[in-house]
Specification:
The chain is mostly helical and 160 residues long. It has one domain. It has five helices and no strands. The protein starts with a helix and ends with a helix.
Length: 160
């Protein structure tokens, strides 16, 4: 198992990095572009994104990184060593700041948006108030958390 452990850390580096890139581009580009569109068009585009993103490759990277994070937190406590702090910190950043935030904040907002007709007044209100403010704010948390997890996993890989 000890010989395999660096490969688990390396896989977590890749997964956290891919997630960080995805969330980063939403924070600095995609949501700003969608906000410039008329509400109906921005809502329709986001609804389409929320459908397309739920594909096997995304789910493998997202949920796989979460599973690796859980394993690496446990491994940090079990194996100890110089990588312990980075394994635990990286895993907790990903599990708390990415997975938990996604499930508790972003997914419920996505589900609420999905249930609305893009041209409705209710959708426009949700879009301009809750979605473009709250969803984006929580996405910033996911961005920073996944970048932090990436950095911690890089340091853990270096120390392993």
């Amino acid at each position: 198992m000890a010989a395999f452990f660096p490969w688990l850390i390396f896989s977590a580096v890749i997964g956290a990095g891919l997630n960080a890139g995805l969330f980063f581009i939403f924070s600095v580009c995609i949501m700003g572009a969608l906000a410039r569109l008329p509400a109906e068009q921005g809502i329709a585009a986001m609804q389409a994104i929320n459908v397309v993103i739920l594909n096997p490759l995304f789910l493998l990277v997202f949920m796989g990184t979460a599973l690796l994070s859980l394993v690496l937190v446990a491994g940090g406590f079990i194996h100890g060593g110089p990588a312990r702090f980075y394994l635990v910190a990286g895993g907790l950043l990903f599990l708390g700041g990415v997975l938990a935030v996604t499930m508790a904040a972003n997914v419920p907002l996505n589900n609420t948006l999905e249930a609305l007709q893009p041209g409705s007044d209710e959708a426009a209100r949700l879009w301009s108030s809750a979605y473009l403010v709250d969803w984006v704010r929580w996405n910033h948390v996911r961005t920073l958390s996944s970048i932090g997890a990436f950095g911690c996993f890089v340091m853990a890989f270096r120390a392993a």
